Amino acid sequence: ISLRYENGRFVQAATRGDGTTGEDVSANIRTVRVIPMRLHGDDVPEVLEVRGEVLMFKRDFEQLNERQREAGQKEFANPRNAAAGSLRQLDARITSARRLRFFAYGVGQLEGAEMPESHSGVLDWFDRLGLPVSKERAVVTGREGMLGFFKDIGERRKSLPYEIDGVVYKVDRLEDQRALGFVSRAPRFALAHKFPA
């Protein structure tokens, strides 16, 4: 999802769509309680486009499917499908009844503020602005650091409140990310490391 803030106020939300054009889901996003309608702090930019992921925690998914069963309606296959389907509802009251969460992870457009120099700095800045970010993150060095983080998350995977299928390693310095660039639509500065099936 992409959230647009102007002078600290939420103005619009759109799905990723095809990478260029997405659906306007602003009314539904307004019902997601963890997404602030107003940013806080002293370093609020004039324009900030926040990229992130809408998700559903496992407990909320189980409760949703229980309500679906009781109503004689079709159950959802997994939390990812339930979250995506909830965002695309025509009636925002349906979205509101489903407990969605959000984690911010990137910046699209930015005007009127300095961009932090690192990805970890962006996440820390988002946290200060009141945007939810995953607490399950770390800055590590080298292969040993990455594999150690992967092992640690793998051991705690079942106890996390949401489903994951692996971790994503990203080059931390944004200048290095820009230098590495993209291949087609995939970034050269990020790598997904999946858990065994």
Overview of the molecule:
- This protein has 197 residues and is α+β, with helices and mostly antiparallel strands.
- Helix content is 33%, strand content 23%.
- It is built from seven helices and eight strands.
- The protein has helices at 26-29, 58-70, 79-87, 92-97, 119-129, 142-156, 174-180; strands at 2-6, 9-14, 47-55, 101-111, 166-170, 182-183, 186-187, 190-194.
- The strands form three sheets. It has a four-stranded antiparallel β-sheet with strand order 2-1-3-4. Strands 5-8 form a two-stranded antiparallel sheet.
- The longest helix has 15 residues, at 142-156.
- The radius of gyration is 18 Å and the shape is globular.
- The relative contact order is 0.14.
In short:
By secondary structure, the protein is of the alpha+beta class.
Could you list some keywords that capture this structure?
197 residues; alpha+beta; 4-stranded antiparallel sheet; two-stranded antiparallel sheet; 7 helices; globular
